[in-house]
Amino acid sequence: MFQIFITDLDGTLLDHRTYDYSPAWPALSELKAAQVPLILSTSKTAAEIIPFRVEIDNHDPFIVENGGGIFIPEGYFSSIGLETREAGRFLVVSHAPSYPQLQASLAELAEVLNLRVESFAEMTPSRLAAITGLNEDRAKLSLEREFDLPFRVLNESFDPTQLAEEAQRLGLRLAQGGRFLHLGGNTNKGQAVTQLLELYQLNHQEPLRSIGLGDSENDLSMLEAVHLAVVIPNPHSQSPLKTQLPSARIAQVPGPEGWNEVVLSLLG
Length: 268
Hints:
Largest sheet: 9 strands, mixed
Strand order of the largest sheet: 5-6-4-3-2-1-11-12-13
Order of helices and strands: EHEHEEEEHEHHEHEEHEHEHEH
Number of domains: 2
Strand content: 15-25%
Structural class: alpha/beta
Number of helices: 10
Shape: globular
CATH topology of the largest domain: Rossmann fold
Number of strands: 13
Radius of gyration: 18 Å
């Protein structure tokens, strides 16, 4: 059986507040030793993920901006069969609208619903750092987006269901992340995971077993696309993942500590 682990980052492998992942080192080392692929599937940008992969010595494909883009290291698969474009040392699969299109659509949504919004497109690195706790260098990388537009609604109250319906009317989707709402194309983490698993199956003879780990609402489609879903509890999120995924395994503690415990037990 060929195992694949697919994980969210913020609030899952990374601590929600400090972004620390050091408690997960034992499990990361075991995955590496066992040559089990670890797919990072995140709302973060490729500019953020590429140096992080170097930090943890990861060489597998990854999914960015809530499924907007799949990045595959050149030569990783002998057969792909999908339309790709080159980006440095990676082949990219994407069906997302352009970033300027998303900015125009968000402006339209705000006008129609009389909302005041603040999006990544208008934030400076220092502004994003103040909101998230990232340092300014990392905040700058987080603003280098291509496929997905994070934003905040500044009104004291608004109807998220109405906002999601209006986005859908424009052919877009709204997702709730750990800190921000995300406006993107009609793609999600689950669709990207499904495409990637199909590529693995195309390039491997043995059966696949996929394990997904996530903590918030924008991980739901990803966790529904895998064989075994693992919910990492997040005290900062009101996500109903536990009730939406009744067969999921629930980690005992939040963040990288819970991630480490679950991954080690599954490898064992």
